[in-house]
Amino acid sequence: MTFPLDAGRDCARAWEAMPWVLQGSAPPEQSAWLTDHLAHCASCRAEFAQQTRLRHAMSLPTDIPLDANAGLKRLLGRLDAPDIQDAPLHARSGTWFTRALVAAVLVQAIGIGTLGMRLWSENPSASYRTLSQAALPAPVGAIHVVPDASMKLADWNALLRTLRLQVVGGPNDVGAYTVVSAGPGTDEPSTLQQLRASHGIRLAEPVSTRP
Amino acid sequence: MNDANIDADANDRMLLQRMAAGDRAALAVLYRSYHGRLCRFLSRLTRRADVIEETINDCFWVAWQKADGFHGDSRVSTWLMGIAYRCGLKALRQHGDEAVESDPLSEERFSAHDPDEDRELRDWLGKGLDRLSVDQRVVIELVYGVGHSLDDVAVIMQCPVGTVKARLFHARVKLRNVLPGLAGNSPLNKENAP
Which of A40, A94, A23 is nearest to B142 (CA)? Predict the structure, then answer.
């Protein structure tokens, strides 16, 4: 930023000092220096005269007719009814927002509740076991079956269907599956006999549930 | 700050403390004390009397609400002017161009009581201020009209002191080239202005 005149440094200094000298906030030595400079610089004198006129014009009372008492009365009225003036805008928007949030939470809660009820009613006896949990005891009537290594999967499935058996465990370390009857009306000894007689079955033994 | 300003600020602080305690009489005293200053300050932003009054009341509404939050980091006048400045800018945004235009009826009514000399001076000033941006007019008002320091103006306008200096500089250069000089002189060194 440079001084607008092609003037010396003193004129630039005078330009900087003028507003503060006019305000009366400049230090006395700065005011004295400016007075001295103006005494022998016509250009700065003209500038200072214009600045003085500007300050005088700026300090004139406003030309906008406003009644302070009427304004104050309106302000006090506004203080008495804060919820009609400014607060309500925020309050209304705040209430609307809060209501929307509450509605969203309610919808979520209802949704979660409905989903939970549905899952519970669909499979109330479903139980889950993690790998770290101990193995459940074999059900009553279970049979350990060791198929031959050469037995085809299709043959194994056909045998299970024929004897109405369902695999509930295995194979264990020795390749034994645990099977139980998949439906009512099956006789365990008979099933055992048929298993033992089947081609491709190396071992079929009932599971002893008692030690 | 001179002794008169120190006394005035101490009095303003006391009024603010009373306002923080809910004293409406203190609010009324402060309102009347600053009404003229704020009215003139805001008239540099808009010529609409209704917008100015609304802005002054917005300013004191905020001051009433936040009186207990005033920690004395600045003078009360600086704090109030800052609030008025922000409320004024908000009013300009809300009202748009219509806020800048004056109400011809009220101007006519008031100017009938204006002495010729003052009217001439206002016209002279008006020609210059019309050429300035809002921020430049505000800086000129705060420095020449109200008598604030650069630091105060920076606090009021919430900008660095360097920005205030730049606005003041450019406003002065514009005014100096636009305003006719005393005794019918032509504008000074117009060609040298940046």
Answer: A23
Q: Kindly report the CA angle at B54 between B48 and B59, in degrees rounded to 5?
A: 125
Alpha carbon B34 to chain centroid, angstroms: 11
Model confidence over A37-49: pLDDT tens digits? 999 899 899 889 9
Whether the predicted interface score ipTM is above 0.85: no
CB A178, CB A187: distance < 8 Å: no
For the domain B114-182, what is the CATH code?
1.10.10.10
- At residue B184, the pLDDT reads 45
The arrangement of secondary structure in B1-105, i.e. its CATH architecture, is Orthogonal Bundle (1.10)
Distance from the Cα of A119 to chain B's closest Cα (Å) equals 55
| Domain ranges (residues) in chain B | 1-105, 114-182
Q: Would you place residue A164 in the very low, low, confident or very high pLDDT band (cuts 50, 70, 90)?
A: confident
Partner-chain residue, chosen from A46, A59, A71, that has the shortest CB–CB distance to B57: A71
Amino acid letter at B174?
A: K
The DSSP bridge pattern shows strands A165-169 and A177-181 to be antiparallel
**How far apart are the C-alpha atoms of A196 and A206, rounded to whole Å?**
11
**Does B28 have pLDDT greater than 90?**
yes
Statement: residue A161 has pLDDT above 70: yes
| pLDDT value of residue B114 | 60
Q: What's the CATH class of domain A143-206?
A: alpha beta
- Which residues partner with A180 through β-bridges? A166
Provide the 10 A C-beta neighbour count for residue A150: 7
User: Which candidate from B128, B144, B188 shows the least CB-CB separation from A46?
Assistant: B188
